[in-house]
Amino acid sequence: MNPGEAIRPDTYVSMGLHPWYVDENYGEQLTLLRESLSRQEVVALGECGLDKACRTPYELQRVAFAEQIALSESHELPLMLHVVRAWDDLLAMRKEAKPAQPWIVHGFRGGKELAEQLIRAGLFLSFGCRFEPDALRLAYRLGAALIETDESVIDIRVHYYEVAQIIGCPLQELQRHAVALGIGLFPRLSLRRHFASVG
User: Fold this and answer.
1) CA distances from 151 to 43, 98, 130, 191 (A)
2) How far apart are CA 40 and CA 12, in angstroms?
3) Are 15 and 29 in contact (CB under 8 A)?
4) In whole angstroms, what is the distance from residue 164 CA to residue 169 CA?
């Protein structure tokens, strides 16, 4: 998306420089990103992060990710993370940056031990349609679980129903959890208006 490109009304987006697409001209990419982050429709920065399985040179990824951490802080936007085989580096960069903005791991598929480590470090975990049930239950119990359908065509309502069954809680309780967490993590969203009936 280009900085001036129109966004449909009542649509919110996250914008970032994904590690798969960082190239030698990442400075220009970051300039375009920086110009877009002040738009009201932009509610998060990302996906961004570290991926040791992709072709992008890893050091280039680290530099671009560090820049986006700084942008997340300066624009007061939560950071949506793409992380593959780079958890130790991610946690080291988080410790060094000491961010005030929330960090949310997109499409978390790791196990319960990794989930606990990340949550202890202050991260939130977003669960798509493929996940480890024990990790989901732990993250939900600790107030750090989000639900997503990014890589799937499944209806989010169906996914919520399945997640509620796996967690063992009523669907309305899961919805209240999601709305409360969303209001806290994404202050630019108008969740109170859209979800006034949940509760």
Assistant:
1) 20, 30, 9, 23
2) 8
3) no
4) 5
Query: pTM of the prediction?
Result: 0.92
176's tokens:
């209240």
Instruction: Name the one residue in this structure whose structure tokens are 């202890």.
Output: 120
**What pairing do the DSSP bridges indicate for beta strands 13-15 and 124-127?**
unpaired
Contacts of 132 (CB under 8 A, 6+ apart): 109, 110, 111, 112, 115
Task: Give the pair of three-digit tokens for residue 165.
Answer: 């069954």
**Number of residues that this document lists for the chain:** 199
Q: Where are the beta strands (DSSP E) in the chain?
A: 13-15, 42-51, 79-84, 103-105, 124-127, 145-147
Q: What is the dihedral of CA 149, 195, 138, 187, to 10 degrees?
A: 90
Q: What is the pLDDT of residues 170-181, one digit of tens each?
A: 999 999 999 999
Of the candidates 82, 140, 72, the one whose C-alpha atom is nearest the C-alpha of residue 108 is 82
pLDDT at 120 over 90: yes
Phi, psi at residue 168, to the nearest 5°?
A: 85, 40
Handedness of CA 91, 188, 178, 45 (dihedral sign): negative
Written as one letter, the residue type at 86 is A
